[in-house]
Amino acid sequence: MKIFQASDVVHLIDRKERTYTFELKEGARFQHSGEFLSHDDLIGQPDGTIVTLTRGTRLLAVRPTLSEYVMKMPRGAQIIYPKDIALILLGADIYPGASVLEAGIGSGALTLALLRAVGETGQVVSYEVREDFLRRAEKNIALYLGKPPSNLLTRLKDIYEGIEERELDRIALDLPEPWRVVNSAGETLRPGGILLSYLPTILQSSQLTEALHRDGRFTRIETVETLLRPWHIEGMSVRPDHRMVAHTGFITVARRFLPAPAR
To answer: Residue 51, exposed/middle/buried by CB under 10 A (0-12, 13-18, 19+)?
Structure first.
């Protein structure tokens, strides 16, 4: 059974599905519409419990899923949406023990998913050119995990100037000009390694694809996007929801290979 502890991130959810996010701290209070809840009353309770505020309002207390946390966490830069993160993890084949380079770190949404996927035996290296984004992401990551992860190395560095690491298994890019990284990626990815790039426009994706073809060390180049449509199901009312998360970005994947030696 998962028990709430001090420093845990908590979501309180009311009957209208509104969510309130905070970090549990001994001696602190959560306040809402003139009512409050002592954090001490929640510490030690099981995840998924119902709490009652001082005037009787009842809220559901849960430890947020990664997807829920990503959508609510403080942002320095725009996040990659959970629907795209899911496809990135599968498209780039992020596996336990993998060495993954990421650029840029943004607000840390993708970083958290990469850390979970590579596990304790893997490593994530994150390049970020803006220090304010990097520090915000580090705080978001440490807050969700409860401590700074030992398998994350952050670098305040412009990846366009080169990549320090070698024999990487995977590279994941969230940059406006990823074609400028293709040559470095070809030198630092191991044979069979995967390069993935997330871009907002198809023109950027096209320019990246052309650069990958010109480089000559990449194959199986593919670009996709995901559209997520939720459904409303309540009794006899079964229909698509009025809103959906449509286009957010394009994902381009390519695989590094060793060209055949000249005869």
So the answer is: middle
Question: Which residues make beta-bridge pairs with 8?
Answer: none
Sign for the CA dihedral angle at 253, 258, 262, 263 comes to: negative
Query: Do 100 and 123 contact (CB within 8 A), yes or no?
Result: yes
For the whole model, what pTM was predicted?
0.92
Q: What angle do CA 243, 48, 31 make, to 5 degrees?
A: 80
State the CATH class of domain 68-256.
Answer: alpha beta
Residue 179 has pLDDT above 80, yes or no: yes
Domain boundaries, the chain: 9-64, 68-256
Which of 86, 67, 81 shows the shortest CA–CA distance to 245?
Answer: 81
3-state secondary structure of 178: helix
Strand partners, 50: 60
Q: How far apart are CA 109 and CA 169, in angstroms?
A: 20
Summary mean pLDDT of the chain: 95
Q: Which amino acid is present at 157?
A: K
Query: What is residue 262's predicted lDDT score, i.e. its pLDDT?
Result: 67
CATH class given for the domain over 9-64: alpha beta
230: exposed, middle or buried (Cβ count in 10 Å: 0-12, 13-18, 19+) = exposed
